[in-house]
Specification:
The chain is an alpha+beta fold and 211 residues long. It has a single domain, classed as Cathepsin B, Chain A (Alpha-Beta Complex). The chain has eight helices and seven strands; from the N terminus they run αααβααβββαβαβαβ. Strands 5-4-3-2-6-1-7 form a seven-stranded mixed β-sheet, sandwiched between helices. Strand 3 and strand 4 form a beta hairpin. The radius of gyration is 18 Å and the shape is globular.
Length: 211
Amino acid sequence: MHYYHIVKFDEGWGCGYRYGINEVPQIFKLQKYIEDSWSQGFDPAGASHFDMNLKGSHKMIGAVDLLALLTYLGVQASLVECRSSSDAMFDWIWQYFVDRQSYPTGSESDSSRDSEAFISPIFFQFAWHCKIVIGIESTPKGKALLMLDPSEQPQITYLPNVALSIHSIRQTKEQCREYGKELQCLYIRSKAILTKEQSESLKIPRASCRI
């Protein structure tokens, strides 16, 4: 996984674009891809909201916009919405990583093993900001999510300071309550590419799960 934090250029609006890109020209390219998806009928509500004009702007995007874009590009992605509590979303994210830590052995092919081992980071959106969840941690003090904030440059170092590095990105259930109740999580389900027919059938972005 590559992680890129916001620079001065996109400070205050660029967090949604930082789900895997690192340079300003790539932000503009991503904006152009979103406009291309609108022209093909993807996410009409988003197209209307942005008035079909995004490239070169400082307009913020979120999980729904990225879901529509990924679907347009043939990527299998899913959106989870939470309207109940941050605790419910914390538990869902925790279980997401737990379920993917152990995979059956003896798969029929290398490709199937590769697919089973795929664990996507989670694009976590709340209010007008987003973070990237890259894992979980269980300690005698309790559970925590490991969460990168695109608006900050994390102090990630190598041993022997790894404990301090993890501390800088650790978010407990209590800390996550600051994010409110209306939350969204976006993740990539599989490395397999959608067929054109599958992509066309998913032009209207919808949550696959609500908690």
